Amino acid sequence: MADENRTVLTAEAVSEQNEIRLNKLNELIAAGKNPYELTRFDRTHLSDEILSSFEALENQEVSIAGRMMSRRIMGKASFAFLQDRNSGIQIYVRRDDVGEENYAEFKKYDIGDMIGVKGVVFKTKTGETSIHASEITLLTKSLHPLPEKYHGLKDTDTRYRQRYLDLIVNPEVRDTFVKRSQILRETRAFLDARGYLEVDTPVLGTLEIGASARPFVTHHNALDIDMFLRIETELHLKRLIVGGLEKVYEVGRIFRNEGMDTSHNPEFTSIELYEAYTDFHGMMDLIEDLFKTVAQKVCGTTTVPFRGNMIELGGQWPRMTMKEAVKKYSGIDPHLWTSDEQAYNEIKAKGFDPEEGHTMGDLLNYLFETTVEDNLVQPTFIYEYPIEISPLAKRKADDPSMTERFEFFICGMEFGNAFSELNDPIDQRQRFEKQVAAKRAQGANASVDEDFVTALEYGMPPTGGLGFGLDRFVMLLTNSDSIRDVLLFPTMKSQN
Asked: Does one domain contain both 247 and 387?
């Protein structure tokens, strides 16, 4: 019996193909065959299970379900291709087997409709594993045509906005996100096996801290206070080290109100981990081992293609100080600098154009970004960063202007950041205050995180800490050019 209370979409302002599908839907409902009424369909197998186990399943009855991606009608018999979660399989439908009425209905199905099929596993004369249908059921009516098969969905804006459509018609996109899940699972397994404890820390905070990233601001009505989406998980995780947990990590969503490009999205996923009684050298060993292990587990190799290069994750990754790298690629030796003015003048004399008024540390970082980063194609550790850009890292014992910090780079892209963590509460307060003053000069209402300083005053052991972007890691292991290609729903400008 038709659902007389159901409001059926009108065909106004839709394409001719949409109108045809809407008319088919109206006819089905009028005939009491609403294609949205079924609540479940019991399937016994997925297509890839049938394809990989043909010998065991030949001539056995199976039940499968999925989306009809193509169809060839040949009089009293037809072929269709059904796509499910992992793969797809050919369906052979014959009028004499499914019944004349059912076959006539099947011929009216549209590409994109969801169907359920019961039948026997067999091979066609051409050797293709197929299902010889005995029953076929329309499970869901698709009201929009899919993109043309051979051209697929190429427009990137549409792909990102309508990821569900991208996943339907582009198998390689589905493979990327399956691999993303595998990468995350293997990363967790790696850390869990080494005694790290996975934890969750707050996403909302009451302080705009002095870090360089700009936060998103929201408002809590009950407390009548502004709150800030987190720009990192670091300070809460280090509180847990103070509390004695010793080895912790978090897979956390991070929010930064900043620009967007092929390696930046306003929200992204970071993995941060902290371990008591080790330092940044220990973190180098750990991340090198993690990347190798996960690549081998997920890709079956430690040599992966990325941005036109074959990246070798196996073996020993080169390690250079920032000063060594700048000397190598710029021809300027920062080891010889004795003052800010001397460094500035030398850089200007070599044809560079840095802003005036910067310290030697800032100028070192300027040269690094200008002359070094693009040359770091194979995995490379760069360590000993200036104090000016490392407010949470421990100072280098024999050179207080530098810190025990490293970043690692692949194809000119920074993939992660690590420190021997600063655990001196007095030094930390001074750095926070300097950072906050700089933020307030820019108009922000930044504050020192007093509770974190208090935590350090109770005593944090020597600690190594590391953070790296999961999304960039996925980009590497899936050979994806843009971060949007590895985020299911990247941030997009409103179409309105």
From this structure: yes
**Per-residue pLDDT tens for 29-40?**
999 999 999 999
The 10s digit of each residue's pLDDT in 369-423 is 999 999 999 999 999 999 999 988 999 999 999 999 999 999 999 999 999 999 9
Length of the chain as a residue count: 496
Q: Is 349 domain-assigned?
A: no
Do 117 and 187 fall into the same domain? no
How many domains, in total, are found in the chain?
2
Decide: helix, strand or coil at residue 406: strand
What is the pTM assigned to this prediction?
A: 0.91
Tokens for 163?
Answer: 């990821």
Q: Grade residue 446 by pLDDT with cuts at 50, 70 and 90.
A: confident
In sequence order, what are the residues at sequence separation of 6 or more whose Cβ sits closer than 8 angstroms to the Cβ of residue 208?
215, 217, 228, 439, 444, 445, 446, 447
Residue 21 lies in a domain: no
DSSP code string of 240-294: HHHTT--EEEEEEEEE-----BTTB-SEEEEEEEEEET--HHHHHHHHHHHHHHH
Residues 91 and 177 in one domain: no
281 in a domain, yes or no? yes
In terms of residue numbers, what domain contains 86?
43-146
What is the rounded CA–CA span in Å between residue 451 and residue 457?
10
| 358 secondary structure, DSSP code | -
Picking from 423, 493, 430, the residue whose alpha carbon sits closest to that of residue 210 is: 430
Looking at the fold, whether 291 and 230 belong to one and the same domain comes out as yes
Pairing mode of beta strands 197-198, 247-255 = parallel
> Would residue 32 count as lying in a domain?
no
Q: Is residue 295 located within the same domain as residue 434?
A: yes
Closest to 234 measured CA to CA, from 197, 267, 270? 270
Sign of CA dihedral 13, 152, 88, 483: negative
- At position 95, the amino acid (one-letter code) is R
